[in-house]
Amino acid sequence: MPTIGVKRDSLFKALGQTYTDAEFASLCFAFGLELDEVTSEKQIISKEQGSDSSKGASEDVIYRIDVPANRYDLLCLEGLYNGLLVFLNKIPTPQYIATTPSRVQKLIIKPTTSQIRPHAVAAVLRNISLNEERYASFIELQDKLHQNICRKRTLVAIGTHDLDSIQGPFIYDAKPPSEIRFVPLNQTKEYTGSEIMELYSTHAQLKQYLPIIRDSPVYPVITDQNGVVLSLPPIINSHHSRISVNTRNIFIECTATDLTKAKIVLDTLVTMFSQYCDDKYHVEICEVVKPDGSCVRYPELKVRKEVVNVKKATKYIGINESTDKIAALLNKMCLSTKILGSGSEVSVSIPPTRHDIIHTCDIYEDIAIAYGYNKIPKTMPRFASIASQVPLNKLSDQLRIDIAQAGFTEVLTFALCSRDDVSVKLRQKMEDIPVVHIGNPKTLEFQIARTSLIPGLLKTVAANKKMPLPLKLFEISDVVFKDSKAEVGARNQRNLVAVFYNKSPGFEIIHGLLDRVMQLLAVPLDKTVGYFIQAADNPTFFPQRCADIILRGSKIGTMGVLHPDVITKFELTLPCSVLEINIEPFV
């Protein structure tokens, strides 16, 4: 959950009322939030940087409040107090209006942007009045959005500019780094795109964003009609178009790889701060010209309608309230509601600030929050039921206990691994493995869902080579296989793996563990009704030191002494034997 810090006095002034810390914590809980900490700027700096750094810091009391991750409208002071004021029935739900000026600002997207960040949206906050506190809140909201819905600027990057210092129409293009030259924010010297990468390679905040575009042959750039650079998204804005407390007209642009997220971010920014415009809650539209020549106007500020059956909603929540009461509860949550027809249904207007409302069940949740979770009457279930553990999980827990008693230590490894872990390092062909690939892996370490538990155990052994020998480790966890017959295209399988690492392979130890597991499961050593092992040829294992495990005619696993190449590729120096079986047939 994101945590925002707001000055207590500023918040109480906006709410028109003061509260004790306990009273405000209760208000937050009723609204679906949590007051995490009562602190001050001085205490925060002292905690993070040391007491010497806190000299001169403000003593103002700061409330640190935990906000649900999907409530983007509560990530700043403005959204928080507006939401609370509506919840307390002190103000009506704000109505946001997209206005069309006589001269609409245009943002023209060039075809070259498709190589790197293909989408862009824009809007203007006209005749806005800022002060130091509002300006700081505006910047902080951008930062919160960047870290949250923007996924650290990979999906969306926000740029805000002083419209009076630039001239439209604006051009969103992608150029080679050497052709981009401008003075970055808070700098005095002009840099090329490549030089900017070098300049900020050690910057505490910006260095984390450089890899997003650094290796691309072209960098995205926004300029005005005179060629003045506004920003190099998603890295930094231009010093020329920087905004300040004296800025009256703000041009906002969001470049993105995800258009839906960009529209949400733009809606959130303009709705939160349009209250400071001379025409309150009015936002000036901009026209975005796409590479194919089509034009779209932003922000959309859509108000969506949903029809809710009151009887169904109250039944789900477990309350018995009239339609009038349900409508009043929804109005408290910034969802303007009207009673329809006979009163069995209500029409709910979902404003552009509530992008978290996706389904009717989200509206039910808001009814429950406004009603008060603690006020929902407790009831006994209408039917008798006995809770029981999932059979597969019960079997897994029972096996864990007995294998641990056999002298093996349990480990828990990552469910994701690299492609090489299950193919090259195990001497297998990737095309022969039904692997589930991660669409956009963050690192080379986590490219696929594991199809075997062996790589994770061998990595654990490699990280613990200094421990006394022998190392006897095991894991009981899920592996994932691609499966076209499964509803989601993949299926999980519960496997048991054990490894013995010592100066001698210890095949007899692993074999003994298999026999012990089968004894616990009451499976006899029998080719017809039980299990048996048969020689196998598997490139992962040493020749003639590998066996398949057969249960009632079907292969359930493999055991053997690992091939020296496998040992070497996992950075091990001693031989080891491994057992891996599927335990689901025993349920």
- Mean pLDDT score: 91
Parts with pLDDT < 50 across at least 5 consecutive residues: none
CATH superfamily of the largest domain: Phenylalanyl-trna Synthetase, Chain B, domain 3
N- and C-termini, Cα separation: 38 Å
Whole-number count of domains: 4
Which class of the largest domain in CATH terms?
Alpha Beta
Helix content: 25-40%
Named CATH topology of the largest domain: Phenylalanyl-tRNA Synthetase, Chain B, domain 3
Count the E strands.
28
CATH architecture of the largest domain: 3-Layer(bba) Sandwich
Task: Kindly name the structural category.
Answer: alpha+beta
Largest sheet: 11 strands, mixed
Task: State the gist of this model.
The protein is built from 15 helices and 28 strands. With 587 residues, it is an alpha+beta fold. Strands 4, 5, 6, 7, 8, 11, 12, 13, 14, 15 and 16 form an 11-stranded mixed sheet that branches. Strands 20-23-24-28-27-26-25 form a 7-stranded mixed sheet, with helices on both faces. It has a 3-stranded antiparallel sheet with strand order 1-3-2.
Describe this structure in words.
It is a single chain. With 587 residues, this protein is an alpha+beta fold. 26% of the residues lie in helices and 27% in strands. A hairpin with a 5-residue loop joins strand 11 and strand 12 (229-232). The chain is globular. The protein starts with a strand and ends in a 5-residue tail after the last strand.
Could you give the topology of this structure?
Blueprint: E1 3-7, H1 8-15, H2 21-30, E2 34-40, H3 41-49, E3 61-66, H4 77-87, E4 97-99, E5 105-109, E6 119-125, H5 132-147, E7 156-162, E8 170-175, E9 181-182, E10 191-192, H6 193-199, E11 219-223, E12 229-232, E13 236-237, E14 250-256, H7 259-273, E15 282-289, E16 295-298, E17 304-309, H8 310-317, H9 323-332, E18 336-340, E19 345-350, H10 360-371, H11 391-405, E20 409-410, E21 416-417, H12 419-422, E22 448-449, H13 454-463, E23 471-482, E24 490-501, H14 507-520, E25 531-535, E26 541-551, E27 554-562, H15 564-569, E28 576-582
Parallel strand pairs: 4-15, 5-8, 5-15, 20-23
Antiparallel strand pairs: 1-3, 2-3, 6-14, 6-15, 7-14, 8-11, 9-10, 11-12, 12-13, 15-16, 17-19, 18-19, 21-22, 23-24, 24-28, 25-26, 26-27, 27-28
